[in-house]
Amino acid sequence: MEMTLVIGATGQVGRAVIARLRRSARPVRAFVRSAEAAAGFQSAGIETALGDLTDASTLSRACFGATTVVATANAAVPTRRTDTFEAVERDGYRNLIRAAVSAGVRRFVFTSVPLTRHDRLSPLLRFKRETERALETSGLEHVIFRADVFMDTAFAMMGSAIPLRGAEGATVLRPFAFANRHFARIKDSIEQKGVAMIPGDGSSRHAFICVDDVAAFLAAAAISGLTGVYDIGGPEALSFLDIVRISLVGQSW
């Protein structure tokens, strides 16, 4: 049966994708950095490939025998100093696409971000676009999902642990990451102090989407014949101030 390689397997989205593929009885290979992470997946009966997106030699081994790659890894919340945008988003994905082509992978499902007016100002956004263009010229069947802001992460960073309940590999809890340290300081702010931490003036609007819905799109695309570029989020764009107002219906500060 066709094998799906999941890049970013230990992350919140990657774990959710693996869970969905396993429920569909699809063979899965988890690409992981450490022997400890590999042992965890193997104990659950999941095949692993040990390596790093920044190490091109390990990508060839990981892609061997796979028919589909689902890529969720990103450098937005790094856990190591070497996980720069250039190393991961630019060079890592460039090498991953090359390895997939060389290994005879047929299909590539990529997690990207929405287009903005400020793409050129952000290394993350610029390199996401580079990867999209590389996929479009690679000869691989490809599906690109431009996922809007993850509500699980954004709402937790407003000052509450509630959005993380039941989450595996939660982004804001990554060891040594800035997000982890910041979250530790504000995680009870809403419940205990009635204070929501919002970015900027809170007026920017996003079509927030939950991690599990993103994983559902990725897992479905790994199995189906769908191709193309799709924006996912919504169903409506809300500001952070809107989120605060919605959460406080029937309450007062």
Question: Layout of helices and strands, plus pairs?
Answer:
Blueprint: E1 4-7, H1 12-23, E2 28-32, H2 35-43, E3 47-50, H3 56-63, E4 68-71, H4 85-103, E5 107-112, H5 123-136, E6 141-147, H6 151-156, H7 178-186, H8 189-193, E7 205-206, H9 211-223, E8 228-232, E9 238-239, H10 240-247
Parallel strand pairs: 1-2, 1-4, 2-3, 4-5, 5-6, 6-8
Antiparallel strand pairs: 7-9
Helix pairs in contact: 1-9, 3-4, 4-5
Describe the structure.
The structure is a single chain. The protein is an alpha/beta fold and 253 residues long. The protein has a domain at 4-148 and 207-235: 3-Layer(aba) Sandwich (Rossmann fold), CATH 3.40.50.720. It is 41% helix and 15% strand. It is built from ten helices and nine strands. Strands 3-2-1-4-5-6-8 form a seven-stranded parallel β-sheet, with helices on both faces. The chain has a two-stranded antiparallel ribbon with strand order 7-9. β4 (68-71), α4 (85-103) and β5 (107-112) form a beta-alpha-beta unit. α1 packs across α9 (211-223). The longest helix is centred in the middle third of the chain and has 19 residues, at 85-103. It is globular and about 55 Å long. The N and C termini lie far apart (56 Å). The relative contact order is 0.14.
